[in-house]
Amino acid sequence: MASKAKTIFLADDDPEDQEILKDAILKQAPSVNIHSVMNGQQAIDYLINCPDDDLPSLLIFDYKMPIFNAVEILERIADVPQLQTIPKVVWSTSNQADHAKRCMDMGAALYFVKPTKTEELDNIARQMLDLGKD
């Protein structure tokens, strides 16, 4: 029986940013499924209600989103047992050190500033995929 394709969860309120990151990830891992939502409430609802068999192998959050930002999402999912071992990544237009620190303190494994160059994006996607490996 074929193994199930990995799923990456992406929460970002900017459709263009979603598309460029999806493209970069799929260029390196074409068999990955990417489930995306547009705001923090949708992220929390999906993750808390996701069946264990469908849990993503990696969670990616934009820092600043409507309803809940990445820190607030990380706070709300911190005590959900099935989500505790899934690597979490935050990416943002903000390069403020306190934003990165708050995310890391709340359980994010990595924090990236959204890049302006394709090569940088490819490198970020590679690091994200490496983090999501079993």
UniProtKB/TrEMBL annotation:
Keywords, ordered alphabetically: Phosphoprotein
Occurrences of domain Response regulatory (ranges): 7-129
SMART domains: REC
Pfam family, one: Response_reg
Modified residues (4-aspartylphosphate): 62
UniProt keyword annotation of Mitochondrion present: no
GO BP term, example: phosphorelay signal transduction system
Bilayer-crossing regions: none
Protein name in UniProt: Response regulator
Taxonomic lineage: Bacteria, Pseudomonadati, Bacteroidota, Chitinophagia, Chitinophagales
